[in-house]
Amino acid sequence: MACLKMGLTPHEALAAVTINAAWAIGQQQHCGSLEPGKRADLLVLDVRNYEEIPHWLGEKPVRSVVLSGQLQ
Q1: How many domains does the chain have?
Q2: Helix (H), strand (E), coil (C) string for 16-29
Q3: Tens of pLDDT along 7-59?
């Protein structure tokens, strides 16, 4: 939605909902990026690269979900 309505690039939108969001709530040491020791909550999407994500608005490209490092 941020790409289509607000003019953000896919890279900017992804940063906004990951590392920038973690910094905004003071949780950058625990989440927001994929690093050893950080909580691993993530989606595995069925897209070729992150730039395709905005084109899937309204669809369900989720292949799998990982919460706290565990495949759901």
Answers
A1: 1
A2: HHCHHHHHHCCCCC
A3: 999 999 999 999 999 999 999 999 999 999 998 888 999 999 989 988 888 88
Are 1 and 17 spatial neighbours (Cβ–Cβ below 8 Å)?
no
Range of the domain at 55: 2-71
How far apart, in whole angstroms, are the C-alpha atoms of residue 7 and residue 61? 22
pLDDT at 72: 92
Q: What is the dihedral of CA 2, 61, 23, 31, to 10 degrees?
A: 180
Which residue type, as a one-letter code, is found at position 1? Answer: M
Q: Is the dihedral of CA 70, 32, 37, 30 positive or negative?
A: negative
